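Per reviewer request, we include the raw input and output of the structure prediction for the construct analysed in the revised manuscript.
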Amino acid sequence: MKIHRFFITESIQPHSAFRSEEKGLVHQLRDVFRMKKGDSVMLFDGTGYEFEAELELVTRKEAVFTIGQGEIKEQKGTGAHLFLSIIKKDKFELAIEKATELGVEKITPIIAERSQYKSIRPERLQRVITEAAEQCGRVTIPELTPELTLEVALEQYSDMVVLDMDGEEGVVGKNILIGPEGGWSEKERKMFKQKGVSLVSLPFDTLRAETAVVAVLSRMV
């Protein structure tokens, strides 16, 4: 029987009673999974530990657990910082979900010249990230940073590697930049050259942005 996993924003202590009023958690326990007293779950708080827990009470406003033993869990994945140009909402969320599953450490949305969309919904994306982490078994939550323009991102991260089909095959660094549907503009390409940014290609034909995320991160795991 599958034991469901839930992320808790508060610190968890082993062998203790734990009470949470997090609306999202209470909703999942009570209305989605319809859990009841005595059901077992796994909880994690982003510290690298995972805790066995037994549900003692769930109401419309709170959930109460008895916390068991905590166990440190090795975090697998890339540890990469993904810079992803903002694309269509459903595709962007899919890319973020898969990046979380593949172990990225940080995600920064990028506003490029050819980005059709210029803003994100941080609360919605944070929920996508959390649910992906719960589902895939990781015990840390990737950091979602505010969106940056491409120019600002290049100024702040000098060791960035840009994924580009015209680049050379090579080693992908920990700071990876993936462009929008329309690709990089000539102005942006000149900017890459001026700043000495490496352009790296993958051994595939043209990939959609969300596919490129999976392709490049899978090579790093």
